[in-house]
């Protein structure tokens, strides 16, 4: 690989970026892109800026002290994180890690399923990793409790749902309670009640997700996985999508939604299913947003349903465009919710749609009903 130093030397020797690219056997745009990256990081020799800040950062400001003879004596360089470059580096790291993941081998389907049916298992705001104390908020919640309930709920919901040809795992965001080594919300940095170390939360999340997908493969001919971006776990939703896509890349019965846009869509015959966490667009505007974003699917279908979470309580709104449903969470309340008086019930639903008729049945299970 051609290094930055080699490109810099070639530009100095040949006098232009185009000539340097030709001498090095590189595309002109490759050299231009590298140079733009240097400038962003603070490399501009004509202004005595010759020491770029580290990759992943960008120049915030620089002050240079010159003596009376115009000789540079001291220089102060200030930097800040470059979000775009950090996202690029994160994606590259995910690709490198994914290359080492074990792949699931194709599994023959040995059951009988109705191809006209699709069952959508809606899970939202599960907040794996959250800590709640019964005496303070009404229910206990930690990683062992959450992981146990999650697997038991899916087992019960799958067992009690029709033998549909399609199974949709619609995880609508905030699956993890926090998104990194610090237990804070990513945007506002509010301190959260956290149960354990982040690595343990990640490990449990991966194990539970793979167990759920396997149960769905035993029930349904095909499985479609959606891991929506939430406001608590925007970065973790990325690695979860990419990881599952790699793990199941050799299993033709599994498809994984990998869109970086936080709005998602799945079509089943005359049925359009739309998904969004709810942190960007509220339920009252979600119908218009989805119809605009997925106009092709909207135009091909007769029955349209949008699903979101975020606010933890149930609400249904039917417009001329579609039925929008905001779902409850299975998770217990934390101290923040309890003290704020947000006291919604707890449940999750498996909704079955017919390819021609729309919704035909649903199984809704609160934690107490899960065996």
UniProtKB/TrEMBL annotation:
InterPro entries: HTH_Fis (IPR002197), Metallo-depent_PP-like (IPR029052). It comes from Nguyenibacter vanlangensis. Residues 6-35 form the DNA binding HTH domain. This is Helix-turn-helix domain-containing protein. It holds the Pfam family HTH_8.
């Amino acid at each position: 690989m051609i290094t930055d130093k080699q490109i810099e030397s070639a530009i100095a020797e040949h006098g232009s970026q185009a000539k340097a690219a030709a001498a090095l056997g590189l595309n002109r745009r490759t050299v231009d892109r590298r140079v733009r990256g240097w400038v962003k990081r603070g490399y501009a020799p004509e202004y005595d800026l010759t020491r770029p800040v580290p990759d992943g950062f960008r120049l915030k400001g620089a002050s240079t002290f010159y003596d009376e003879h115009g000789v540079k004596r001291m220089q102060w360089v200030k930097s800040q994180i470059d979000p775009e470059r950090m996202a690029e580096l994160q994606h590259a790291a995910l690709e490198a890690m994914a290359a080492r993941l074990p792949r699931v081998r194709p599994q023959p389907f040995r059951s009988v399923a109705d191809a006209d049916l699709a069952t959508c298992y809606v899970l939202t705001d599960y907040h794996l990793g959250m800590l709640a104390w019964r005496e303070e908020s009404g229910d206990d919640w930690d990683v062992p409790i959450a992981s146990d309930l999650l697997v038991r709920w899916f087992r019960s919901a799958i067992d009690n749902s029709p033998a549909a040809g399609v199974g949709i795992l619609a995880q609508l965001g905030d699956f993890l309670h926090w998104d990194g080594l610090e237990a804070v919300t990513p945007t506002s940095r509010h301190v959260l009640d956290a149960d354990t170390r982040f690595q343990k939360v990640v490990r449990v999340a991966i194990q539970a997700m793979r167990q759920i997908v396997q149960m769905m493969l035993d029930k349904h001919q095909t499985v479609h996985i959606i891991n929506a971006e939430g406001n608590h776990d925007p970065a973790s939703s990325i690695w979860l999508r990419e990881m599952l896509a790699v793990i199941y890349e050799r299993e033709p019965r599994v498809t994984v939604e990998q869109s970086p846009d936080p709005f998602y869509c799945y079509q089943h015959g005359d049925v359009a299913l739309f998904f969004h966490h709810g942190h960007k667009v509220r339920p009252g505007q979600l119908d218009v947003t989805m119809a605009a974003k997925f106009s092709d699917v909207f135009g091909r279908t007769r029955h349209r349903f949008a699903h979101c979470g975020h606010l933890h309580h149930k609400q249904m709104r039917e417009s001329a465009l579609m039925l929008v449903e905001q779902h409850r969470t299975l998770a217990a309340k934390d101290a923040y919710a309890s003290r704020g008086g947000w006291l919604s019930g707890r449940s999750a639903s498996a909704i079955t749609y017919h390819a021609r008729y729309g919704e035909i049945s649903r199984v809704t299970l609160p934690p107490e009903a899960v065996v």
